[in-house]
Amino acid sequence: MKIIRDLGKLNSKEKTAIAIGKFDGLHLGHQKLLNILRLQKKHGLKSVVVTFDPPPEVFFGKGEAGQLLTAEEKEEKLEELGVDILFYFPMNEINAAIPAESFVKDILLGKLNMAFICAGTDLRFGAGGQKSRPGNSDLLLELAGQARSTGGQGFSAEIIEKIYYGEREISSSYVREAVISGNMQLVHDLLGWPYSFAGKVTGGYQLGRTLGFPTANLTISEAKILPKAGVYLSKVLTPAGEFKGISNIGIKPTIDGERRPGAETFIYDFSGDLYGQPLKVMLREFIRPEKKFSGIDELKKQVNEDIEAGRLWK
Q: Is 200 within 8 Å of 72 (Cβ atoms)?
């Protein structure tokens, strides 16, 4: 997958099919868009995802803190989903002032050679104001119709209705709520995959090893949304394969006294040195909240109980 962040490097010779949006969680609603985009490849179109960096609500100071996916995770998922080009439209004072109609004509048509575009009903893009029309799904449909009727550079547009989980609309905000509450089954149902953390195993205090329960430590990106602190059943992807695990998610002090989020995972039936190796921890079920123990003996007893409970999980 080709990644473009610079408007000056945007110049497609080939016709493209575009999905436009924030794609901040890549939940099932986003995947519906991407499935439609992938179908356009049968017509010889390159698939392009257009998103915004930073997201408009963050640029304008109205955004929610934290990411469901880091940039690296988003790029990996989009590549898995068959996207050919990912374009991060750079949000700055100049670009934020581009009228919506100019954005379509000069960038999507002029630079990306758009032949097809799909978006959700809640799409918003381009500068608004008295002299410029709001950028939304209605504008895309209208401009597509105008292009065909006037003999201009034609393109077709498809607007996708929201999908629901039960009676509630699937949205990134809904996924955030589920993550923060620790409801990992609901998160899985909304995303289509388990919520995860990835990185290289770092050195910890090795307290687990002294207790007889060696653990792998991951430092979680500060940009990533954390579930509530506590103990979770997990699946762990290692260079040696996938294993069952039990993970403690929380804030642990570093040597210099700062506090950073971390994931500490005991991996069942695994032996070997993972230090410095890539690891992916996929959270499956919340067991209990974090506790403050009176001493090492009480901590060891609780960890023993957690590990034995995890062994029974299928």
A: no
Contact 54, 92 (CB under 8 A): no
Helix axis angle for 172-181 and 184-191, nearest 10°, is: 160
Residues 6+ apart with CB under 8 A from 166: none
d(CA 124, CA 263): 36
Which 3 state secondary structure label does DSSP give 250? strand
> Cβ neighbours of residue 95 under 8 Å, at least 6 residues apart?
7, 89
What is the amino acid identity at position 121?
Answer: T
Per-residue HEC secondary structure of 169-221 comes to ECCHHHHHHHHHHCCHHHHHHHHCCCCEEEEECECCCCHHHHHCCCCEEEECC
What residue type is assigned to position 93 of the chain?
E
Looking only at the bridges linking them, the beta strands covering 216-219 and 259-267 are antiparallel
| Cut 0.85: pTM above it | yes
In DSSP notation, 34-96 reads HHHHHHGGGGTPEEEEEEEES-HHHHTT-PPSSBSS-HHHHHHHHHHTT-SEEEEEE-SHHHH
Taking a C-beta distance cutoff of 8 angstroms, is the pair 175, 168 a contact? Answer: no
Confirm if 170 and 164 have CB atoms less than 8 A apart: yes
In 268-306, DSSP assigns E strands to 278-289
Question: For each of the chain's 314 residues, which pLDDT tens digit applies?
Answer: 999 999 888 888 899 999 999 898 899 999 999 999 999 999 999 999 999 988 877 777 776 667 899 889 999 999 999 999 999 999 999 998 899 999 999 999 999 999 999 999 999 888 765 556 788 999 999 999 886 655 556 899 999 999 999 999 999 999 999 999 999 999 999 999 999 999 889 875 455 555 557 888 888 888 889 899 899 999 999 999 999 999 988 865 333 444 566 888 999 988 888 888 899 999 999 998 877 766 677 777 777 778 877 787 76
DSSP 8-class letter at 154: -
Q: At residue 49, what are phi and psi to the nearest 5 degrees?
A: -105, 125
The alpha carbon of residue 297 and the mean position of all alpha carbons in its chain are separated, in whole angstroms, by: 40
d(CA 275, CA 217): 9
